[in-house]
Structure formats: structure tokens, C-alpha cells
């Protein structure tokens, strides 16, 4: 191995290493996400049935509210495991005030969604922090979460039925818009304020 290769490996290791600052920021993101999840769950209890009554499957348009922090946390922290870490904390915070959903199931959902986002950025070895990669993360989460819902919640709904097709399309739209576009522009907006200047992600935003 050449000296240049050794330096590159050391640089990559340093770039991906978690610092106390990353852990603290991730915890804060998880806490805020958990509060968003809790509030969204309360609103969903009456919004989702209404949307379903109007058009079965349309409620999936808002599902991205429950997984946009996966991509956002990776954009901000730029560390392997960031989405999983933030996702676990968010569920723990969400259940503190009380939650009508099955706790083990929503924890599994959070981890599965986070791993999908990790895969999108991991494909590029956690080096490509672009809008395209973020949208890819949203698409992967939407596809897997849609399959998860059909397998565990809507067993009587076929993927190729009208309800299944509408739900899948709406889920993909939600993934692209909320977990992709909204996460990206929210990250850029936060970074432009200087709040992320101590992180590499914030420094990149401010340099543009």
C-alpha cells in the first residue's frame, strides 16, 4: 500500500468516525423527530381515515412525514448509522407521551426505513450528499415501506388491485417529495443559517 493510499484510508476513517458532537446533534434530531411523529400520529388518526374514504390508498401521500428524518439525519450528520441512530431515538421519544400503535412494530418500521436510507447513501460509500441520492433514499424507503404495509397491515389488499396500485403510487410520491425534496431543501435551509457550521455538512452549505 502506498503512502497516498494509507493517507486516503486514514482520511476516510476520520471522516466517518462519530464524535461527541455528532452523537449530541443526532440525539437532538431524534428528539425533534419523535415529537413530530407523536403529533403526526395524533393527526393521522382522523386525517388518514378521511383520505382513505375519499380515495383508498391516498393516505400514503402523507406517510413520508414518518420517514423524512431518515434522509435528513444522514444529510446533516454524514455518518454511517445516522439514520438508524436518529430513528431509534425518535421512536423512544414518540412513545414517552403515549402512543396508540404497537411499540415493537413501530421500532421495526423505524429501523427498516432507516436502513433503506442508509443503503441509498451507502451505495456511494457515504461520499455523495446530493439531491439525487436523497431522492433515491426516499424512493427506497417508500418501496420497502409499501411492501411492509401490504405484508403486515393490509394482507387482504393485492399489490395489483386498484387499492394496491393507488397506494404504491402515492407512497412513491410521498417518498420522493417528503423524504427526498423536503429533506434536501430543509437541510439546505438549516445549513444556511449557520446552525450546522461545526459539521462538515454545514460548512459545505455555507461555501456554496
3D structure, described in words:
The model is unreliable at 1-8 (pLDDT under 50). This protein has helices spanning 3-16, 20-54, 68-77, 82-95, 103-122, 131-152, 162-192, 200-207. The radius of gyration is 18 Å and the shape is globular. The protein has 8 helices and no strands. α4 packs antiparallel against α5. It is mostly helical. The protein has one domain (20-196): Arp2/3 complex 21 kDa subunit ARPC3. Keywords: Membrane, Transmembrane, Transmembrane helix. This is ABC transporter, permease protein.
Short summary:
The protein is an all-alpha fold and 208 residues long.
Shape descriptor: globular
Average pLDDT confidence is 90
The largest β sheet comes out as: none
Question: How many strand segments?
Answer: 0
Number of domains: 1
Question: What is the helical fraction, as a range of percent?
Answer: over 70%
CATH domain class? Mainly Alpha
Structural class: mainly alpha
Within the CATH hierarchy, at the fold level, what is the topology? Arp2/3 complex 21 kDa subunit ARPC3
Q: With helices defined by DSSP (H or I, 4 residues minimum), what is the helix count?
A: 8
Content of β-strand: under 5%
Order of helices and strands: HHHHHHHH
Terminal-residue CA separation: 35 Å
- What is the architecture at the second tier of CATH? Orthogonal Bundle
Rg, Å, rounded: 18 Å
**Unreliable residue runs:** 1-8
Keyword list:
ABC transporter, permease protein, mainly alpha, Arp2/3 complex 21 kDa subunit ARPC3, 208 residues, 8 helices
Write the layout of secondary structure elements.
Layout: H1 3-16, H2 20-54, H3 68-77, H4 82-95, H5 103-122, H6 131-152, H7 162-192, H8 200-207
Helix pairs in contact: 2-4, 3-4, 3-7, 4-5, 5-6, 6-7, 7-8
